[in-house]
Design brief:
Elements (H helix, E strand, L loop, with lengths): L1 E2 L7 E2 L1 E4 H12 L6 E6 L4 E4 L1 H17 L6 E8 L3 E8 L32 H11 L4 E6 L3 E9 L7
Parallel strand pairs: 4-6
Antiparallel strand pairs: 1-2, 3-5, 6-7, 7-9, 8-9
Helix pairs in contact: 1-2, 2-3
The structure holds adenosine-5'-triphosphate and magnesium ion.
The site of adenosine-5'-triphosphate has 21 residues, from helix 2 and helix 3.
Length: 164
């Protein structure tokens, strides 16, 4: 099913295993296994979503987890579900985020300490990820603590969007 509406992100809905997507994405991003990915939760979870868009969200969130954890190589990825939603959480043990900055984090071009820190980027990855997840009627958010790390999560409804 392809839904295209003026001014909206186009989605191409497929049925696929979210756990497989997550593991494939980690393998592509970390071919030499410099980082230690730990997979928790479901061993398989079939969902209806746009595979390539959700892959882009994972690339953005895992990319951030790596970029903002220069000295901690462990990243935990949890896939869970309840009756209504799939949830993916990406936990790093990196620099963390000041709670005062959290409300702006998903804004376009927003970067914490844009001119102060040594990490390069445009401030677009989280903005794009939020657009994609909102378009799937999911939610995206983060729990974080400076110095201990961040836990970014998102949800995707489990129902078939073509039946409504
Ligand atoms: P881009 O993704 O466009 O290359 P970016 O990584 O700076 O650049 P976002 O991914 O949108 O942009 O993230 C916005 C800001 O949120 C980052 O600049 C960083 O300050 C903060 N941030 C995002 N993820 C993390 C994380 N896992 N740990 C600590 N800070 C983070
Ligand atoms: Mg980024």
């Amino acid at each position: 099913v392809t839904k295209i509406q003026q001014g909206q992100l186009a989605l191409n809905i497929n049925r696929f295993d979210l756990v497989e997507l997550v593991k494939d994405c980690c393998e592509h991003i970390n071919p030499l296994h410099d980082y230690e990915f730990v997979f928790l939760g479901d061993e398989e979870l079939m969902i209806y979503a746009d595979y390539r868009r959700i892959d882009q969200v994972m690339i953005n969130l895992i990319g951030n987890a790596i970029k903002y954890s220069p000295h901690k190589k462990r990243i935990e990825i949890t896939v869970l579900h309840d009756d209504a939603n799939a949830t993916v959480a990406i936990r790093d043990f990196g620099i963390g985020i000041n709670p005062q900055k959290l409300p702006h984090l998903f804004d376009r071009y927003y970067r914490v300490d844009a001119f102060g820190h040594q990490f390069s980027g445009l401030g677009l990855g989280l903005y794009i990820s939020a657009e994609i997840i909102n378009r799937h009627n999911g939610k995206i958010g983060v729990h974080s603590e400076v110095g201990s790390g961040s836990n970014f999560w998102f949800t995707i409804p489990l129902d078939d969007p073509s039946i409504s």
